[in-house]
Structures are given as structure tokens and as C-alpha cells.
Amino acid sequence: ALTEDRPFELAILDMMMPKRSGFLVVEKLRLISKDKVPIMMITANEGKRHRDYAKELGVDEYFEKGKMPMDKLLDAVQRQIG
After folding, report:
1. Which member of 17, 50, 53, 65 has the greatest number of CB atoms within 10 A?
2. Residue 68: is it exposed, middle or buried by C-beta count within 10 angstroms (0-12/13-18/19+)?
3. Which of 26, 50, 27 lies closest to 39, judged by CA?
4. What is the separation of C-alpha 18 from the centre of its chain, rounded to a whole number of angstroms?
5. What pLDDT is attached to residue 36?
6. For the purposes of burial, counting CB atoms within 10 Å of the CB of 53, is it exposed (0-12), middle (13-18) or buried (19 or more)?
């Protein structure tokens, strides 16, 4: 609901969130966003199938928890929002 009322430059989502799948949020963001807002997804799931589906939905950056040093996350944020 917040994204419909407030502009934002970047979305960082977990794949598994309370009450809603990160995939469902990505689908909704892609439907309501006039501009293609960059989306980054972070997950503990190591499956290739989930990574492929995230890319299919338009996720710009995908990270696995525990394999993501903070500097790589910050570099990815910089890449996405300049």
C-alpha cells in the first residue's frame, strides 16, 4: 500500500516475508510502477528455480543470504540507483 502513495527509487525484498511472498510483491510492483523501479531480492533459498523465476519477473539483483558481503550489497544499490 505504501508504494502506491509514495515514490521510491529502489525496492529490496526478501523472498519469504510475513503474510506475502516476495514474488507476489514483485508482480504487484511491476503492475503499479509507471517507471521500472529497480528491485533487489535477498533470500536464504539457494534454488536455481527461484533465481530464474525472480529474473523472469524482472528482479534486477538477486542475492543469497550468507553469501552476500555488505560491500556487494552496497555496490548493487549504487548500480541500481546511481
Report:
1. 50
2. middle
3. 26
4. 15
5. 82
6. middle
As a whole number of angstroms, the distance between CA 54 and CA 69 comes to: 20
Per-residue cell: 66: 550468507
Concatenating the DSSP letter of every residue in 9-68 gives S-EEEESEETTEEHHHHHHHHHHH-SS---EEEEES---HHHHHHHHHHT-SEEEETTS-
> pTM here?
0.82
Q: Are residues 58 and 30 in contact, defined by beta-carbon separation less than 8 angstroms? A: yes
Q: What are phi and psi for residue 34, nearest 5 degrees?
A: -70, -45
Written as nine digits, the cell of 55 is: 529474473
* Residue 56 banded pLDDT, cuts 50, 70, 90: very high
